[in-house]
Amino acid sequence: MKKILIVDDEYKIREIVRMNLELAGYECIEAGDGEEAIEIIGKQAIDLVLLDIILPKKDGYKIAEEFVKRNIPIIFLSAKETITDKVKGLKLGADDYIVKPFEAIELLARIEAVLRRKGNEDNIFKYLDVEVDLNARVVKKRGQTIELTSQEYSLLETLIKNKNLALSRECLLERAWGYDYMGDTRTVDIHIQRLRKKLDWEDTIITVYKYGYRLQVQKNND
Question: Which of 25, 30, 204, 213 matches a 20 to 30 Å C-alpha distance to 9?
Answer without folding.
Answer: 25
